[in-house]
Amino acid sequence: KTNETFEPIAIADAASDEDLIWNISLQARIDAALASGEIYLVFQPKVDVATGALIGVEALVRWNDPARGHIAPDQFIRQCENAGRMSHLTRHVLTHGCLAGQELQRACGPVPVAVNISATLLHERSIVRMVREVLSATGYDPRLLVLEITETYRIADLDRAGAILAELKALGTKISMDDFGVGAASLEALMHLPFSELKIDRLFISRMGSDPKAMGIVTNVLHLGKDLGITVVAEGVEDQKTLQMLRDSQCPVAQGYGIARPSSLEDVIIFQGLASQS
Ligand code: C2E
Ligand code: CA
Ligand code: CA
Ligand code: CA
Questions:
Q1: Closest ligand by atom to 127 CA
Q2: Cα separations in angstroms, 116 against 119, 134, 187, 190, 256
Q3: Predicted pLDDT at 20
Q4: Which of 40, 59, 87, 214 could form a disulfide with 207 if both were Cys (CB 3.0 to 4.6 A apart)?
């Protein structure tokens, strides 16, 4: 009996020692990659569905490791979290996102920049200080900064997260709920938290054309957004057919490979020039 309980603990201890060593080297590698530019940002346009005009960009992180090649963000965000480096990464993304926003503003006028913020960072007030510091260091207009809250289902304490988001909103930023519809408790989060935008997860958008249920969910989320006074963004729009369905459903904003792929800031500026001509 004692053996049964003892053995797994011993294994767990050994594993955590290895984890510790792995995490220390991972921490060092992440920090080095941020400093060297191996970790960098690309930007994906958000467009007005009715006119095709550029009305925002989302900053997405990329890691091109010389030894391991391109590391997918989903995987690398998880690694960052395990290595205790999320807030470090987020500060970097916020800073470079705001700097890019200023460059974009010079070229195209005031186009909001969205940065992804992991819900786990809403457990502590330090995120408020971070955003305030980045805004003052870069001089970026807070009204042009959108904070996309990812993985909302991981919020442990909605009251606390709500208070933190209210403080972020008071700085002038807009708060967006990412991946709406997937993960538990998204309606509860929508009710409690001060969102001004919600992004319908691409799971629903990609199936709109083939699955009446997905179509029904999308149309109803669009109604929901209207009723709550929240802008709805359709993400993962891969083709013209989907874009047309969204237009017919009066979806205000869309994003996806079928409109523009994530790219360098220079390419976004070219995209804006083309979009404003047509
Ligand atoms: P997300 O916030 O839902 O970002 C949208 C993802 O969908 C991006 O993947 C984007 O490249 C991809 N995408 C856009 N249009 C299409 C499309 O038409 N079809 C398909 N199949 N995919 C499309 P990416 O860049 O791989 O990022 C994955 C996730 O990693 C993001 O999902 C976000 O949750 C997270 N992430 C990325 N950058 C950051 C960051 O700086 N901080 C944090 N916390 N998370 C980030
Ligand atoms: Ca996002
Ligand atoms: Ca999303
Ligand atoms: Ca996602």
A1: 1
A2: 9, 15, 20, 17, 16
A3: 67
A4: 214
Contact 136, 158 (CB under 8 A): no
Tens of pLDDT along 174-215? 999 999 999 876 899 999 999 999 999 999 999 999 999 999
230: CA distance to ligand 3 center in Å?
16
Cα–Cα dist 67/271, whole Å:
33
- Position of tokens 């938290």? 193
Residues with CB under 5 A from ligand 3 (ion): 178-179, 235
The number of the ligand 1 atom at minimal distance from the alpha carbon of 235 is: 15
CB contact at 8 A, 209 and 241: yes
ipTM reported for the complex, 2 dp: 0.98
Work out which ligand 1 atom sits closest to the CA atom of 118: 44
Mutate to test the pocket of ligand 1, among 30, 34, 44, 60 (most ligand atoms within 8 A of CB): 60
Proximal ligand: closest to the CA of 77: 1
pTM: 0.92
Residues recorded for the chain: 278
Nearest CA-CA partner of 37 in 57, 58, 64:
64
